[in-house]
């Protein structure tokens, strides 16, 4: 007779350790990625062409000679999965009962302790990101080819995404900054833990302020471009150096149309076709 | 010399054994004297205003850990807190997270005993001790390191300062993790990391700690709790790999 052993406890349950490691690792990757993401997005401050170059770089344009937007989709899907995993793991720490919530609130008010307060900030910002981050992630996954100086600016202004991005900026920078600091004090092996923590806290706030200022300047730049570009919303950015014949030019030439064509993107909407003359 | 202040104390009063008694706060005025600690002020209140006021003390020198309480919202030892370091209005509450005996007195002993039994916080010898043999020598630096962690007086401040412990009463707290870090360091304790993992390798142990570090910031003995918790976390996380 088979004796069911499914209710016997495992000899040693390694999963709590793995889940803790996974929560920290996913947070670390997401936090560092968000800082890099901000640096890439802020390339708009260096001009339209700089941003266009960064966007096409991640589509493999400069490796293959033509853009592969699905590379961006795949990467966003990966980030989405990591985000969902991190959120699911972090949920374990949330106050789930009213009694727990009240105990923490009372404690936080009485203690007036920065790290205790910052954890609650992380809970609030994390909770808000459950709902707001997927909007952006899905858009990027569905339309990776629409990442560009005009395309993004149109989305920010004419697409009315700027309020979402403004809120997300604060959520991400606060949550990520506190999270990375907490990772350091959680796992770090410091000779002088008190001095290290003080330095880490200063660094954390410094980086948070830097990325918030950079983020606000970047968002303002997109809003400005978006407002100016509003009459031509939907028109994509075409860098001057890349004014190349598109498929439309060839079809016009074939039908004897000739004439001056307006600049076209060097790839079709799907973005997966090789561009003529770019090999 | 500055003029002495009249301190206003708001003290929590409640005895759960008084049937029908409601928890409340009573106000007392005490003239501040030079070098006055909260312990001295509480003794004055009991002598001059309210002989029924309950609070614990034994050593009056920060050694026994009995007089821990919430001082203006933060855990601390009454005997080690000078009133001169505090504003003119001082609120005193019993430590949260522990069973209330009465007023400012809580049963930390009951909590600490349960935690110690749960974590088996004693030296586990692999072989029987031969009392006729000379004890194996311990490296002085190691002995010093073990002693450093042994300075914990189980006052309960780290538990009362921990948001995790207050939300989740089964959490072992910094005091528990510090204890296991101490035994892990001790060469006489023969337990392996796998065995320590069985004791604290879950969300009520080391992986439940959210690194709020209230424990580190209020410990009256200034123990390196952040370092000890990180040390145990790394050791226990290796068990998951």
Structure description:
The complex is a heterodimer of chains A (279) and B (241). The C terminus of chain A is likely disordered. Chain A is mainly alpha-helical and 279 residues long. Chain A is globular. Chain A is built from ten helices and no strands. With 241 residues, chain B is of the alpha+beta class. Chain B has nine helices and seven strands, in the order E-E-H-E-E-E-E-E-H-H-H-H-H-H-H-H. Chain B has a five-stranded mixed beta sheet. In chain B, strands 6-7 form a two-stranded antiparallel sheet. The chains are: A mainly alpha (279), B alpha+beta (241).
Summarize the structure.
The complex is a heterodimer of chains A (279) and B (241). Chain A has 279 residues and is mostly helical.
Chain-wise SSE layout:
The complex is a heterodimer of chains A (279) and B (241).
Chain A: H1 15-41, H2 48-57, H3 61-64, H4 69-91, H5 98-111, H6 114-142, H7 149-156, H8 162-187, H9 193-229, H10 247-254
Helix pairs in contact in A: 1-4, 1-8, 1-9, 4-6, 6-8, 7-9, 8-9
Chain B: E1 6-13, E2 24-31, H1 38-48, E3 68-71, E4 74-77, E5 89-93, E6 99-102, E7 105-107, H2 108-119, H3 140-150, H4 157-160, H5 163-167, H6 173-185, H7 193-200, H8 214-218, H9 225-238
Parallel strand pairs in B: 1-5
Antiparallel strand pairs in B: 1-2, 3-4, 3-5, 6-7
